[in-house]
Amino acid sequence: MSVLDGLDEVCEQALAAHGCPSVSVAVAQGQELVFARAYGLADVAGGRAATPETAYGLASITKAFTAVAVCLAADRGLLDLDAPVPGSHPWATVPTPRQLMQHRGGFPAYYDFHYGDEPSPIDPAAYLRQVRTPGSDFEYSNLGYGQLGELLEQVSGQSLRTHLRTHVAEPLGLTSFELGDVHPGPAPVARRYTPDGRTYPDCHSSHLAAGSGWATAGDIALFARRSAGLLRPATAAAVLDGPAITDRLDYGLGRMVQREGGSVISSHGGGMGGVSTMMIDLPDREVSFAVLTNSTDKSARNAVVRHLMDAVAPEFDSGHLQPVTERARDFTLAPGGWAGRIETPDGEIPLRLDVLTDRQVRVALADLPPVTVPAAASHRWDVRLAADLQLPTVDARLNSPSFGLELRTDGDGLTGFAIAYKDGDREGLLGPYLVHPCRLLPVG
Question: Organism's domain of life (predicted)?
Answer without folding.
Answer: Bacteria
